[in-house]
Amino acid sequence: MFQHVFAEMNDMLEEIVKHYPTAQDSHKQVLLQKWTMLKSMSDGIMEEWLSFEEKMSGFREHTMLPPVFSLGEIPEMGMESFVRGQGYFKLLMYRQSIQQFSRIVYDYPNSLIARLYLAMAHLHLEEITEAMMHLQWILPLAEHKKLKAMIYNALGCIQFKLSDLGKAQEYFTIALQHDPTLPEPLLNLQVCQGNRGQLQYGNQLITLM
């Protein structure tokens, strides 16, 4: 539901970046007004999202199964950068999400959940090398089956993007073996077999917390 809105916002921002350096004074003022409007929209969206996420977290804490990662065990999850990075990710603003989670990894280099978000965000931006680096770092340390399943699913997506369908299907199968309830690898297997449809990854991250 957010894709259309953010596509328009990104187009407007690209116009500002492109034309501002050479614009005349009157045109610069118009571009600055557009930038101010975009900044106000971005801040408003984030504030609303943070409020919404706080309510969602409260519901999960009292009604759902124990998460793979919990605030009591993972202190970086309480950082504002984490909440903002998670919000940007869900709003499909992957570059901004990467900026936030990179700050966390700088302070907590062993953070599996922050690196997983980074991997998924890079993957959405088709930055395969960066995504692979984080996934390969996480995999030997992953103990929970759902976490392993998400990693293998993402690795399968990378192999698909690299046109190695055999390896991709192998990784999707391994992901299902770790967690048969994870919907993404099954859908991705169908993409491999039918060579149509859209790869799914990162949609289930919220279930880890």
How is this fold's topology laid out?
Layout: H1 3-19, H2 25-63, H3 80-90, H4 94-107, H5 112-124, H6 128-138, H7 145-161, H8 165-178, H9 183-194
Key structural traits:
Serine Threonine Protein Phosphatase 5, Tetratricopeptide repeat; 209 residues; mainly alpha
Offer a concise description of the structure.
This protein is mainly α. It has helices at residues 3-19, 25-63, 80-90, 94-107, 112-124, 128-138, 145-161, 165-178, 183-194.
Write structural notes for this entry.
- This protein has 9 helices and no strands.
- The chain has 209 residues and is mainly alpha-helical.
- Among the domains are: 3-20 and 27-63; 142-199, Serine Threonine Protein Phosphatase 5, Tetratricopeptide repeat, CATH 1.25.40.
- Helix 4 (94-107) runs antiparallel to helix 5 (112-124) and helix 7 packs antiparallel against helix 8.
- The radius of gyration is 19 Å and the shape is globular.
Give the termini distance in whole angstroms: 23 Å
Uncertain runs with pLDDT below 50, 5 residues or more?
none
Give the strand tally.
Answer: 0
- Per the CATH scheme, the topology name of the domain at 142-199 is Serine Threonine Protein Phosphatase 5, Tetratricopeptide repeat
